[in-house]
Design brief:
Layout lengths: L1 H23 L3 E6 L3 H6 L10 E3 L10 E10 L5 H14 L6 E20 L2 E19 L6 E3 L5 E4 L13 E5 L2 E2 L10 H5 L8 E8 L3 E8 L23
């Protein structure tokens, strides 16, 4: 009977070690395609092999117009921030999302489950497992620029000279572009404009509607132009041999 108990303890330890290995020894990824994914994939990527990676909290100031079309979340067994960037970029490559660039956001450590260990007399002790988390957004360069920028409150902050012919001014509150809403996106859903702008080409007229404080509703036409070149900002991740991705 004593030998049987010893064998059972060894089996339990092996099961616990296996469970810990599953929780701690692998990278796990979840992908999410936004509603504009197919339109984005129809456009050729400017960097299909090794897309540059930038921090979402501090992207290059000279990034041309772009839209997000897919998201990949990573749950890692360890590694520093750059290592995690490389792993998640590798997963994006495996999924063949082919972004022009990635925006990366570390999310700290999060609860990933528990492992239980037999402590004797039929009792088990549970220990929580926390693992590093991060998210990357796949971005596609817009095929045309409309000459304005606006913030999360839909307030117009920048107007190019070519766009001033529309009558729009800084401080106006944008309502719609191209007949669709420009409301800020959520983690699960983009604004309708994030899909519509992938259909706009240089030379197109884009109808804009906005609200001017103290005046009211106004509208005008924005002439789409060729977008500026891709940012020359260096990627935060240098390409590594495929063997480093696992």
């Amino acid at each position: 009977m004593g030998r049987y108990k010893q064998r059972m303890k060894k089996v339990l330890r092996a099961i616990v070690a296996f469970a810990v290995g599953l929780l701690c020894g692998c990278n796990h990824f979840n992908g999410y395609k936004y509603e504009n994914f197919d339109l984005a994939m129809e456009l050729a990527s400017s960097a299909p092999a090794d897309p540059p990676v930038f921090l979402s909290a501090a992207p290059p100031a000279d990034l041309p117009p772009y839209v997000v079309y897919a998201q990949v979340r990573g749950d890692f067994h360890g590694g520093g921030e750059e290592w995690q960037m490389r792993q998640i970029a590798g997963e994006v490559g495996v999924r063949e999302y082919a972004p022009d660039f990635l925006l990366f956001s570390p999310r700290g450590s999060a609860y990933a489950g528990e492992v239980s260990q037999h402590v004797g007399f039929g009792l088990f002790a549970s220990s929580p497992v926390y693992r590093p988390q991060a998210t990357a957004w796949c971005c596609r360069l817009a095929p045309a620029a409309v000459g304005i920028q606006f913030d999360a409150n839909q307030m117009v902050t920048v107007i190019d000279e070519v766009a001033r012919a529309s009558g729009m001014q800084e401080g106006d509150t944008l309502v719609s572009l191209g007949g669709v809403a420009v409301k800020p996106p959520t983690p699960e859903r983009l604004s309708a404009w994030d899909t519509q702008r992938l259909k706009v080409r240089p030379g197109d007229d884009v109808k804009a509607i906005w609200i001017r404080p103290g005046v009211g509703r106004k509208e005008g036409l924005l002439k789409a132009t060729a977008p500026p070149a891709m940012s020359k900002a260096p990627s935060l991740v240098k390409p590594k041999p495929p063997a480093e991705y696992y």
